[in-house]
Specification:
CATH superfamily of the largest domain: Tubulin/FtsZ, GTPase domain
Number of strands: 10
Shape: globular
Number of helices: 9
Distance between the termini: 33 Å
Helix content: 25-40%
CATH class of the largest domain: Alpha Beta
Bound molecules: guanosine-5'-triphosphate, magnesium ion
Strand content: 15-25%
Largest sheet: 6 strands, parallel
Amino acid sequence: MEPDNLLVIGVGGLGCNWARGAHTRVSTESDLLLVDADINSFLGASHAHCMHLDPSGTERGSAALPSLAGHRTVEGLEDVESVIEASELVIILTGLGGGTGTGSSVELAKAAKRSGSLVVVVAGLPFAEQTFRTRMAMDALPVLESVSDVCIRVSLERLAWHARTRRMKWSEGSGWIEELVEGLVSTIGKLGKINLDMMDLKSVIRHEGRATLIVASGPVDDIGKIADEARRSPLIDISLDNARGCLIQVEGGPDMTLTHIASITEDFTQRFNEGCQVILGARVSDRLIGRLRIIAVVSGLD
Ligand SMILES: Nc1nc2c(ncn2[C@@H]2O[C@H](COP(=O)(O)OP(=O)(O)OP(=O)(O)O)[C@@H](O)[C@H]2O)c(=O)[nH]1
Ligand SMILES: [Mg+2]
């Protein structure tokens, strides 16, 4: 796949933060589009395509008005159409509950779908005490899910918890959002030992039910622990038991063997549905000597 066939889009303040951080890991194999009404979201990202939703330049957001943001997005689509149309896979990162992310991400997902792209959305869900924002997010989710191929819900609560244990910032993705995007792009965008492609991803996500993405890593001599971490890693409360589809990419250093690949896959998928469709890929990366990393799309969840 050509590099510019992969596009990372950040929408709204939080989404742009996440996208800027995640894109630094995949800048050679994907393009970046930032969408916000607040020009501060574009600072330091001169390499990015930017869609400024407030042409008059006086506002800092969409004043918690998703419909306004949605409307402005549709009006501005023409300027970014060529970037979206060139992409086979579009990854949209956003935090729901504000005006821009909530309203604009739906229109961007629709545009990407119309141009035939596969659309993966990573949607942050507000903290529990943010009741108004949570209500707004919950209203938007079904729409977002209906216009995307995979919609991954990320609880900001859990992300913040992960951030504390990793000494990182949830607003910058806790390290986890970056890993997720890097995993997706490297799974789909690069040649591996056993190559996976877009058709494999499409085939896995067609299973009915919810889908989620998993990233976990650890030393190659403790496969059980990596599989365990993987099963616990979803950032939203959802059980993987009985999953009906799974695309799994195992990455390791040059010391990785086929036995490693087989045992981690077996361990990770042991509680999945008996008839679960498992598609396996593997990739060698010099940076991972002595370690294994798995990235999985798990679908058909109850
Ligand atoms: N507690 C807390 N939550 C935040 C903060 N910033 C963002 N969030 C959460 O992230 C969600 C998305 O926020 P933003 O990305 O800033 O919103 P936006 O899409 O830019 O929307 P507008 O600014 O209203 O146009 C919110 O609904 C909150 O749940 C923050 O500073 N503190
Ligand atoms: Mg904002």
